[in-house]
Amino acid sequence: MVKWMGSKKRTPPKFYIFNLIPFWMRIDHALDDLFTPESVAVVGASAKEGSIGYNLVRNIVEGGYAGKVFPVNPKYDEVHGLKCFKSTADLPHPADLTIMAVHADISNSMIEEACKNGARTFINIASGFGEVGRRDLEIKMREIVRKYGARVLGPNVFGVYSARASLNATFGLRNVVPGNVGLISQSGALGIALMGMTQNQGIGLSAVISIGNKADISECEALEYLGADDRTKAIFLYIEGTKDGRRLMEVASEVSKIKPIVAIKSGSSVRGALAAASHTGSLAGSDKIFTTALEQAGVLRALNLNDGFNWLRALSQLPIPGAEGVVVVTNGGGIGVMSTDSAERYRVKMLDNRDLFEKMFRKTMPDYGNASNPIDITGQGKNKEYGMAFDIALDEPKIPAIVGLYCQTADGKPMEIAKAAIDSAARSQHRKPITFSMVGGKGIRDAMDELNQAGIPCYGSPDEAMSAMGALYKRHRRLLEEKEEPVVFNDINLNAIQSIIDRAKEVGATNLIESDCNEILRLTGLQFPKSGVAGNLDEAVALAQKIGFPVAMKVLSPDIIHKTEFGAVRLDLEDEHEVRVAYESIMASVRSKMRNARIEGVIVTEMICEATETILGFSEDPSFGPVLMFGMGGIYVEVLKDVAFRVAPISGREVMKMIRDITSYPILAGARGKDFRDIDGISDAISRISYLATQVDDLVELDINPFMALDKGMGCKVVDSRMTIRPKEMKS
Amino acid sequence: MVKWMGSKKRTPPKFYIFNLIPFWMRIDHALDDLFTPESVAVVGASAKEGSIGYNLVRNIVEGGYAGKVFPVNPKYDEVHGLKCFKSTADLPHPADLTIMAVHADISNSMIEEACKNGARTFINIASGFGEVGRRDLEIKMREIVRKYGARVLGPNVFGVYSARASLNATFGLRNVVPGNVGLISQSGALGIALMGMTQNQGIGLSAVISIGNKADISECEALEYLGADDRTKAIFLYIEGTKDGRRLMEVASEVSKIKPIVAIKSGSSVRGALAAASHTGSLAGSDKIFTTALEQAGVLRALNLNDGFNWLRALSQLPIPGAEGVVVVTNGGGIGVMSTDSAERYRVKMLDNRDLFEKMFRKTMPDYGNASNPIDITGQGKNKEYGMAFDIALDEPKIPAIVGLYCQTADGKPMEIAKAAIDSAARSQHRKPITFSMVGGKGIRDAMDELNQAGIPCYGSPDEAMSAMGALYKRHRRLLEEKEEPVVFNDINLNAIQSIIDRAKEVGATNLIESDCNEILRLTGLQFPKSGVAGNLDEAVALAQKIGFPVAMKVLSPDIIHKTEFGAVRLDLEDEHEVRVAYESIMASVRSKMRNARIEGVIVTEMICEATETILGFSEDPSFGPVLMFGMGGIYVEVLKDVAFRVAPISGREVMKMIRDITSYPILAGARGKDFRDIDGISDAISRISYLATQVDDLVELDINPFMALDKGMGCKVVDSRMTIRPKEMKS
User: Fold this and answer.
1) What pTM did the predictor assign?
2) Class of domain B36-158
3) Which CATH superfamily is domain B494-606 in?
4) What is the ipTM of this complex?
């Protein structure tokens, strides 16, 4: 296995190496022993009902596990009808999987003892570690297992369930229904409750992994395992935070190419985000970055449990539609309209082919029915009409997906409607996705259960049926996305950039001076306003004429830092006359304030008039590494916080998505033919900054503000910038 | 009853009269006969199972109605064990309520016959009217009932349910559970299905009204009735559109002061909104206006059925909290964090009093529990700990509301937790609202049902529990709102404004000329940039000096309309010299293009530099009357559509809400101490335009663009405006 160590220090080259090895080749053998062990030892097994050591053995035995089970506890001779061993030393052979259900205080020493006796894969159930401030115990535990080449899941977990091995090695719920959804939970209590929720929703589980404090095995390895596990069709991830966001993102990105991941990330409220805020951080609250990262990785982020489970049911049971476009079949106009509203909300395209639909569907409805989409077969529509309409829609190649809606009528028999839909779907061999919604009372629950059991997810409201269809379409679009690598800019001289930084580091700087910032951005391939240095008045006039009016002028003097305070800056000089006046007035002003200032001349710069102020940069996130930021400048970024983030590096396609993400994008794109700015120029600049951010590890923050976007074809220009570098490490 | 006729013609004076009479005094006696008749005739009663005429009689009889039931149908002697009459003429006495279940073709003549026989209150079930293009039949029907002073609900309805009379006069579902929610549905199919849905959700119904085509009795009268009905604690309204939005808004506004109205308005998708769009309409899509109007009226608009029903359960069962602030009691950290995120989403304030909570709640949890809010009593928390925590929270005056969360644990007994919560709530006499969520599998449904039945709404996810709490808090805020009347501006000379419009009407104008627009806005009390007319060059210079530089100058000539094309406009004149050059150049340019133009001089105008461009105006909506619009000007309104709408007239408080509604509000309000514009000036101008829009019926559209907002205390200035007036009516 390739080890990918923490992210405190960003190590971009590894990122590329990492990606060259398919994730399923990286899976540690220890993970196999977590999910398909041939023997399981439970240290701390107990005959005391209600205790964790009791529940673990009971769940393993009652869950139908076929391997050997070794209860270990010096206090008992027998636990749950099995011989109980005094210690791991007494086992007939080391167990593939050793579960520690003992107190935190002794768990480390008992893990070490088990290691000495040959155990190599552990689950440490115990709480009382990092979550109560005893991070030292965790570090100790990791050191022990590393010493023996062993691995451990936990501490502070409720265990693992594996459908493949019929192994319920949790102290959670019994009677887990095997199926095709893999569940990873950082929260123990919620994870157990979610296992229950799947039972109630008819979702079967392929595996459950409680990841807890993640002292060794993390959600990333769990994701990799479930990604490679062919029983798992969809993955549900509950996560509160991660120390290694970049790795999570990379793994999720690989796995989500193969199967859907639905994630709930909690802790999104402003209060939490504000707590971690710094200057740029107030824009780049870590939750916003987390969200961005998950999206970049192709993960479907649900805002609440309902949405998450609704999507999971569709994603784990249905085929992904082959093209954009759904047809809604309904017996009620009202819910038809509601589903149309929802379709827009969830970016589901309602097919629009009135003539074709009229020809196809008219025979399924009375005269007053509506054969345009939604197909309203009216309250007269019974199982026969529903069946006909579904058959037609399923047979027609131009219809990729179907949403069925049913309003209970006085004499309607919901179960018959359900069966008609099930028959149609079976006839078509479930080639197309159907989501369903039934609204009504008596008999509706049974009909819904029938549909759900037959693999047609049925929901209590049209909105949910359409939301689930929306999740399928997000998957559809994700699968269509071809892999696109970030651009590599060979024209950027990284060595030259590093030299500038090294020089600054040598003198102990953490912020680069203006000329260094400019030089690095020039080397990165960004443009600047035309500018030059003039040694005297006539040179200044000639330079201004060469640059083109209007120009700005400021003094060039090593003695004057705050030029404005010295009256040494003049803007908007529109002709030779104004340049002359400005030159004389700057000189007079500087002399009057600092008689002996060394004056080397003036800097004359092009004024940019027709352009839009934007802001571009990146800053280093402790978990995700360099995060790019682009947004509207000036008042927009200050007040409206109209900025988009992406974890670097990003491909050209993602750059364009990022630009379009900002609310004010139409202002750049040129609504109504006005103000069409150089989007290609912006895109090129973002790609270059992305490359810079990932290649030059010593750069930790960059702000280009303002970054002026000129008209199409005219490029963009850096007006001002700030850069922060990693401080020189102290030698001990 | 005060009749409030259509809205084609806006009649603002009636609006005020209307509001002086409490809505419950306006309820027509006919509505009483709909809901509490002593006798019901069913014309078209049938013995044929499955027919509408059969279901109606069956539902009335089986529903336990205690009054007399008269089936009417010449084909039968007996229907459902009751004597069947040949015609309404044969009845022993006219029925209080006559339900017509006959074909559309004959329904009108049979209604007339029944009227002749003394019937005065009808439900016309028949479809085949306006919804299939036979609006004429509806008009005819209304004429008939009006002739006899009768009233009719329908056509195209499924009937009425009234818990008060145990009357299920619908052909919909049987076994309606009586309760305290009133249901009004414009859609028949959905209405029937919703009745079913209430059964499944444990919501009892006080009344159900199918309003269908609304030929006579509308959703407004239904709302008034349910508003006055003391059995009804909350109202659910499903509506697709209305011809008389203003009246709906006024009625809803009155009723929502007494009890909550939850509404679903479907047809919100852009496609639908675009269809009805006109120039300003593209900003003021009718759905946006509808949404605004419902919000102004204090209605809670749900975007989908789930939310709507979730809210209804809380609103119909729980007390409204007395103050802002909730405490969350949970046994799982994960769902605690999720609920905190949700609290922010639904504007529920999480109480923050760590010291107090530590003191109060520490005894309910082990050491590693968390006594700050959310109160995490941990997985160790059983019924005893939940009960203690609830008791403490319910007893503490500083805690106005509670959200309970439960994650199923391995050995947890959800039913015991439910009972603990129920006991606590009962001990506290249900004085404070509690919403609950339980996440888990086996046993969870039963525990949830137990809570629901005990009047503690329990939901399947923490998000829903918090969303329901959010609905209670919307109600809380609505109830705190004191009635505030729109400002009446006695300083506005409405007669003078009317005279200007009358003069324009006389010459057949529909758009007012610039000077008329300016004069009307001046009379309305709006400000303009300083300006004057100069007859010659020296006067122009003197005028410019008086106004203050910079100024703009344009020619004053009756012959020149498009001044810019004639080169007759100059902007940004900064001193006397520039004024002189501009004057000469304008004259030369005009002369060169139209030798004989009559030139009366130039208009010199103040240039406004430090200000923010906004847009202000109103346009007449066919359903809601004058709708005010305010937004950011220039590129914001063009591209970002950053505008807010309100149905006029509005109070000062609503004006401030409107200003704050726009996304760019911080730009006006002065984020970080910059650019603080004259919000009071904007607010005054909107109030004045609101008054103008409601008082001067002949004005149908006004656009002030740009409307420059100056710095605080400096006012706002009209730079340009357009007005459209109602055309003079043609005499026949």
Assistant:
1) 0.88
2) alpha beta
3) ATP-grasp fold, A domain (3.30.1490.20)
4) 0.86
